Amino acid sequence: xxxxxxxxxxxxxxxxxxxxxxxxxxxxxxxxxxxxxxxxxxxxxxxxxxxxxxxxxxxxxxxxxxxxxxx
Length: 71
What we know:
This protein is an alpha+beta fold. It has helices at 22-36, 54-61; strands at residues 4-11, 14-19, 45-52.
């Protein structure tokens, strides 16, 4: 199965969304962390770079972001 390098937005240890674009992933991470400042129990968001297959990518992002380049 083909593998793709993606950037996963993580909420604590839970994957939230997959991104093909690293800059967009870090921008959304920053936005989430800014919003969390107002939470009673803030949980840090972070970005993890990792290889995944296309089925996992589509499941995580529900087709909202462009497909990543194949590695």
